[in-house]
Amino acid sequence: MVRLLARLLALLGLAIGASAAARAEATSADHLALELVAEHTALVAGAPNWLGLRLAHEPEWHTYWINAGDTGLATKLEWTLPAGWQAGAIDWPAPQRLQIGDLYNFGYSGEIVLPVAVEVPAAAAGSTASLRVLANWLVCKEECIPGKAELSLSLPVVAGGSATGDAAAAGLLRRALAQRPQRLDAANAHYRMDGDSVVVEISGAGLPAAAGLDVFARQPQVLANAPARIEAADGGLRIVAPRSEYFTAAPAQLDLALVRRDGDSVTAWQVTAKPQSAAAATPAAAGTGLTATGVAGGSDIGTWFALLLALLGGAALNLMPCVFPVLSLKALNLVESLHSPAAARRDGLAYLAGTVAGFVALAAALLALRGAGQNLGWGFQMQSPVLVAALAYLMVALGLNLSGAFVLGARLGGVGQSLTEGSGARAAFFTGLLACIVATPCTAPFMGPAVGYALTQPPALALAIFAALGLGLALPIVALSFLPLLARFLPRPGAWMNTFKQLMAWPLYLTAVWLVWVLMRQAGADGTALVLLGLVVLIGALLLHGSFQLRAPSWPRRLATALLLLLALSPLAVLQPQAESTSAQGKLWTAWSAQGLDALRREGKPVLVNMTAAWCITCLANERVALSSEAFARQLQRDGIAYLKGDWTSQDAAITTYLAGFGRNSVPLYVLYPRGGGAPEVLPQLLTPHLVADALARAAAGSSAPPVQRSSP
């Protein structure tokens, strides 16, 4: 009898020890008890094992979910594990909505376990592992207390299938895992901006009923934290939630947790909503603006409408000053080739191929970089000081060629020999490429919505929209090439062409000066001085090459020219961007920041935001025409309008994110926030003094332009 009792006591001790091994000793903190628990009494090698941080809150106290809501901080875990082990992120159970006065927080009260999957290598079987976690939390009632504690757990590691469960710990973990939002794979969800609201529409099989549902966004500062309206609509669900007052950018996807609570029972679903449209519904007519609704969300503009906008935007680029130097080169080709219809058509198609290839190549590079995690927008290549300097070199070289300092080819067209030997098509192709490169700093009407839409679409469709931009840019030249009747309006070739060619060199020189000015903003005085020195050497090399062309070719002359060219290009190898050196405040404006804008909006002040760049000629033209006059300054001061300017000359991720929030991936962008809050108004990309004055008056009065409705093209 004594022996039997001893054996029973030993077995009971083993059971108690095994259970204790699956749960570490609880740690007490202010208004909170913490405990590290494991699903089994031993870890299983070669498989994921569920562990969890158990939080037991005192009544009326709470900690926070991954999105804490209006105030608070999410609980964080930092694991210390044996080599080769891996701990995942917290697999958050569905949160509660916790109201404190006018504030809404998301988190947990009572008892909750935050589960984490830990991967144990197969080679660890037979060992004993010590697991440690550093927990950081914020526990709140009306006041908040931050806390930190290190918890540890020592468990044996066994081969698969031989672990036994700890009923209490396994029950806690099973309950937490059951409260995780389960993905609705069959659901199709999209969201859009509708004034000051975010509308999410969900369709598909297996959707929960709308009654009793609550919704939580994993991303902060998209939805306001007050309860949303959830209703059945068109066989699915529609969620209408107030937009966060701190909203700055529409996310690429909106992750939502739909939660139903029935006493202690919690059921939750996870839905991922894509933006219905990241582009504006329609371009603004002259004298009107677009509201943020039309730009950041609104109705889906559709593929065909985006292609039409891209075509029109590309054609409008021909009117932009940044394209004029290249058009001057192409004008010389047209004068010569339009009197030969076959050559004219060939040149036109080659020019078209160049513009389309240029836009598609730039778009492919942009999509690849964005896919790799770079936060870039259209015109990104002009944010590289090396490329800006290289373009300045190119403009000077082309200008010297037109001035007669040296000859690239035997005919006026440029690269190669005569048109009859095929060089005209090559020259036209590379002229098209050059037109594409220098056109990207400009943003023409119709172009912004098309580019914004393209960058939210699959790669093939995005590239097609950028190809339409190239087609639009080439359209006037192609039309001239294929319509022989237009030749009668052009002068006949003659001696005047040499004078015309020399005159056309000056826009190229002026473009080079502008590029050097842009470079000074990007690379500073030292970098600019190096490039200017390189330009002097380049001019000398090309003048020397021109003098050698009048003599018999020889290898010493070629070597001398090549060495000078290498010396001229050497500054490009050491050119580095520097931090923006412009003043944080001008006479009229203050440097933009998301925090500064939020502070002004909380004060209820009207705000004008100007997103610009030194390489954006459209931006500079707008500032000269409409944003620098005495009347503009007086109106800002009289009406108490804050003027914020964001400089995108060099890459700035915060500005890129702000642009994306309005469906844009390029500058200029002009946004007016009215007095007292309300939906912001997006102004057209080409400004006039009258248009700006009217918009400022609306903002000062606390109103904005009505949304522009799109009609199908």
TrEMBL record:
Location (main, coarse): membrane
Pfam families with a match to the protein in the record: DsbD_N, DsbD_TM, Thioredoxin_7
Entry's transmembrane regions: 304-327, 348-367, 387-408, 428-448, 460-483, 503-523, 529-547
Molecular functions per Gene Ontology: protein-disulfide reductase activity
Signal peptide (residue range): 1-20
GO biological process, one term: cytochrome complex assembly
Localization per record: Cell membrane
Membrane-protein topology: Multi-pass membrane protein
Protein name stated in the entry: Thiol:disulfide interchange protein DsbD
